Fold:
Amino acid sequence: MYAYSKRLHVTGRNMQTNVTEPLAQEIRDDLIRLYGPLLTSRDLWKVLGYASPGAYRQARLRKRVSVPEFEIEGRSGHFALTIDVARWLAKQRMSNPQTHLPEEGEKDMT
Structure:
């Protein structure tokens, strides 16, 4: 989905914070370019990886959405800040110490 220029490799959980922030910034830049600084629930379900709007709605009812959401007076729906979503995505990506992005010249098997 995203092609990131930074090549990151996690060797232990203590490095997660240092490695996660550059990735979060890169994801944030992409999301801001696509959606702006604020994600609506119409876009949020896709970005967070839910299979459908209904699956997202169920997660909201069960309080299982992993990013802070809020309402805006006079507007319908729920919203999340792009930076919060980017940080959550980066954290999920780097949560497994054996997970890494392909090195230069390494084939992507996806």
Remarks:
- The chain is about 45% helix and 5% strand.
- Residues 16-35 form the longest helix (20 residues).
